[in-house]
Amino acid sequence: MTNLRRGLLAACGLVTFAALSTAAHADEDKALAHARQLLKKAILVDGHNDLPWAIRIDKKAPGDVAAYDLNGTVAGQTDLKRLDKGGIGAQFWSVYIPGEIGSGFARTQLEQIDIARRMIERYPKLQFATTVADIRAAHREGRIASLMGMEGGHAIENSLGALRAYYELGVRYMTLTHNVNLDWADSAAKPPEHGGLTKFGEDVVLEMNKLGMLVDLAHVSDDTMDDALRVSKAPVIFSHSSARAICDVPRNVPDSILKRLPENGGVVMVTFVAGFIDPEVAKIQVPAMAELSRRTQGKSVEEAEKIADEVMGKLKLPKTNIAKVADHIEHIRKVAGVKHIGLGGDYDGNSDWPVGLEDVSSYPLLFAELIRRGWSDEDLTLLAGENVLRALAQAENVSRQLSKK
Ligand SMILES: [Zn+2]
Question: Which CDD domains does this chain map to (predicted)?
Answer without folding.
Answer: rDP_like (cd01301)
